[in-house]
UniProtKB/TrEMBL annotation:
It comes from the Bacteria. InterPro entries: Biofilm_reg_signaling, EAL_dom, EAL_sf, GGDEF_dom, Nucleotide_cyclase, Rev_trsase/Diguanyl_cyclase. GO terms for molecular function: cyclic-guanylate-specific phosphodiesterase activity; diguanylate cyclase activity. CDD domains: EAL (cd01948), GGDEF (cd01949). Residues 258-389 form the GGDEF domain. This is Bifunctional diguanylate cyclase/phosphodiesterase. The chain crosses the membrane at residues 69-101, 113-135, 141-165, 185-209. Keywords: Hydrolase, Membrane, Nucleotidyltransferase, Transferase, Transmembrane, Transmembrane helix. Gene3D superfamilies: 3.30.70.270, EAL domain (3.20.20.450). The keyword Nucleotidyltransferase applies. NCBIfam families: GGDEF (TIGR00254). Its EC number is 2.7.7.65, 3.1.4.52.
Length: 676
């Protein structure tokens, strides 16, 4: 059957060619015979060139295949102005047939194109007739005005017919993209206004007409450059997939009549491929990942490369979170098959975050939600996580997790399975390590390692959260005492929940721990989120003020992603603001994210606060943050989170590097050359 398909397609195309050619020839002959008077040699040379040039029609960038610019219109417009509508339409029918054969259009598409141009030429001829257009002895200013009016009538008539046909057919479901119409409108106008120049040349001497081909070539190059510019703006140059901008445009322009889901895929351990096989092999692997995703995603969905090793799929026919998960599992299974690369089968997996959408919601919000879910999946060692208004908040699995955590906290460390990892925070200006953030892990006896986001999301609404915070604070303060007595006194940041802040006894608990271990209060920093402020802002203000007076620094975490309000920066006794990783990760490729980061850094500096950027994963971002004046960086570019025992070894090998000191980076002393 597969072998028969090309033959069937070939027969269908030949049938279309025969029918189109015969129909066009018959219609053109009838129109020519019906035209009055003998047609001069100038007409026949013009007609011949019109048919010839349509063997190379101009495709409009980013539009349907039927949306083309026919270079013949400059010749047929000239014929309509001088010899009337009938000869012009006759020649246009022949030229449209040539263009349709060249582009392998169906008979329906060819007829659609012929109808548009016939109506356009008729409208132009009517305007020229009413304006008493004259080319003998020579056109004047009035004639130039009439020509412009005829060109406008041509354009309006063609677009009116196209809109009418779309309204009567299924093409009405495809939204018009007005922003993409500037290039083809300009090219069409240029060709039409070239028509009277062609006509004057034909009347003087038909031998001058071939010289117009150079002008047509210039118009062709203009359309081609517009297409290349359009593609560069909306498509990824490596994989050929649409890019982040195209995704945002698609989400904004398509009026969803059903639920949609955005699936964000981040390839796991892709950096090891670059390190082992080189960046060239990594690029080839990304193109093969793009090809495989495209092959398994339906045509009604959109596959996008966001940058680096991140891809996204906009699924347009999703009913609920369960169906979105099924799509994600299908994608994960497709990527789990080995990729042959330079004779080596490369195994890949992906962490997938899902954000659900119904109605009109902001594309940037969905991207952040999908990214948050992706990191949740990555941190908890799962492949798929859902973020959205319909994602289950209280599932049997989550209730079981909380019950297991309560049981674990009744045991003494380390039997409870609670493990703290520490991620260094680096002063960007000097390269010095100024502190660490304590990140929670829980080694569940059956589920394995449970990441902090899943753990905190399950525990925070319950009284178990206060038990967990007490456990974490004690271990962190004890570790601060060890570092203070050793060679590396450090400040440690600990996340606290809304429940801890609302209870109020956290102040006494922190004070008691600092006194017991003899740790100065300025070595401890507590991180709060904006969501913690909403339930009881007065209680939170009272609690944080007491902590600040004690000497404990307060940091506002994930600034810009929650209930951002400048009054929080003004009223709370803050020491620093942490810029959310969703902005930092994209600032090297997204001008909007970069602008947000610069704004937050500037605002923090004006208020006398430190600005800390989370999610710094590459040198480019590190340098951009330095240029923006950001104080502190935290992320995988410098070091991954690590246990306290490994941190001491890392600190002994770490060499401070300033962002502008290129020589040290080239010589191998960059922070990421010694990270764990």
């Amino acid at each position: 059957m597969d072998a028969a398909r090309p033959r069937t397609a070939g027969l269908r195309h030949r049938r279309t060619v025969i029918v189109s050619t015969v129909s066009a020839a018959a219609a053109a002959l009838a129109l020519l015979l019906g035209s009055s008077g003998d047609l001069p040699a100038a007409f026949w040379v013009t007609a011949l060139l019109a048919v010839v040039v349509d063997s190379r029609p101009y495709l409009v960038p980013g539009r349907r295949a039927s949306a083309v610019i026919l270079p013949s219109i400059c010749f047929t417009f000239a014929i309509a102005l001088a010899w009337g509508a009938a000869p012009a339409i006759a020649v246009q029918l022949a030229a449209v047939t040539v263009a349709g054969i060249r582009m392998r259009h169906s008979l329906r598409r060819t007829l659609h194109l012929a109808l548009q141009h016939a109506a356009a030429l008729g409208a132009a001829a009517v305007v020229a007739g009413f304006g008493s257009l004259r080319f003998d002895p020579g056109p004047g200013w009035w004639d130039a005005t009439v020509i412009c009016a005829a060109a406008i009538a041509w354009i309006c008539a063609r677009h009116a017919v196209a809109a009418l046909v779309r309204g009567l057919t299924s093409e009405s479901r495809a939204p018009a993209r007005r922003r993409r119409g500037h290039a083809d409108l300009l090219a069409t106008a240029a060709l039409l206004l070239l028509g009277p120049v062609v006509l004057v040349a034909a009347l003087v001497s038909p031998a001058l007409l071939p010289l117009t081909l150079l002008a047509l070539h210039a118009v062709h190059r203009m359309v081609r450059w517009a297409g290349e510019s359009e593609r560069a703006a909306r498509f990824d140059p490596l994989t050929g997939l649409p890019n982040r901008r195209a995704l945002q445009t698609a989400m904004a322009e398509r009026a969803p009549d059903r639920r949609r889901a955005l699936l964000l895929l981040d390839l796991d351990r892709f950096r090891t491929v670059n390190d082992a096989l080189g960046h060239g092999a990594g690029d080839r692997l990304l193109t093969r990942v793009a090809d495989r995703l495209t092959s398994v995603v339906p045509a009604h969905d959109l596959v996008v490369r966001l940058g680096g090793d991140e891809f996204a799929v906009l699924a347009t026919r999703v009913e609920d979170p369960a169906s979105a998960r099924r799509i994600a599992q299908h994608l994960a299974e497709a990527l789990s098959r080995p990729f042959p690369l330079d004779g080596t089968p490369v195994e890949l997996s992906a962490s997938i975050g899902i954000a659900l959408q119904s109605g009109r919601r902001d594309a940037s919000t969905m991207l952040r939600e999908a990214e948050s879910a992706m990191y949740e999946a990555k941190q908890r060692g799962d492949q798929v996580a859902v973020h959205g208004p319909d994602a289950a908040e209280h599932t049997p699995d989550r209730l079981t997790l909380v019950a297991d955590l309560r049981t674990a906290l009744r045991r003494d460390p380390p039997d409870d399975g609670i493990v703290l990892y520490y991620q260094p925070q680096i002063a960007i200006g000097t390269g010095e390590v100024v502190g660490v953030e304590a990140l929670l892990r829980w080694r569940h006896p059956r589920r394995g390692t449970v990441g902090p986001e899943e753990l905190l999301r399950a525990a925070e609404p319950t009284p178990v959260m206060r038990l967990l915070t007490a456990r974490v604070l004690e271990e962190v303060v004890a570790q601060l005492a060890v570092w203070r007595d050793g060679r590396f006194p450090l400040r440690a940041a600990v996340n606290v929940s809304a429940r801890d802040l609302h209870a109020g006894d956290i102040v006494d608990r922190v004070g008691g721990l600092l006194d017991r271990y003899g740790v100065p209060a300025d070595l401890l920093q507590l991180e709060i989120t904006e969501s913690a402020l909403m339930a009881d802002p007065h209680r939170v203000l009272e609690t944080t003020t007491r902590l600040s007076r004690m000497g404990v620094a307060i940091s506002l975490d994930d600034f810009g992603t929650g209930y951002s309000s400048l009054q929080h920066l003004r009223r709370l006794p803050l020491s620093e603001v942490k810029i959310d990783r969703s902005f930092v990760l994209g600032m090297a490729t997204d001008s909007g994210d970069a602008a947000i980061v610069r704004s937050v850094v500037g605002l923090a500096g004006d208020l006398g606060l430190r600005a800390v950027a989370e999610g710094v994963e590459d040198e480019v971002t590190w340098r951009l943050l330095a240029a923006a004046g950001c104080h502190t960086a935290q992320g995988w570019f410098h070091a991954r989170p690590m246990p306290a025992a490994d941190l001491g070894e890392w600190l002994s090998r770490y060499r401070p590097v300033q962002p502008w000191n290129r020589g040290e980076i080239d010589s191998g002393f960059a922070p990421n050359t010694v990270k764990q």
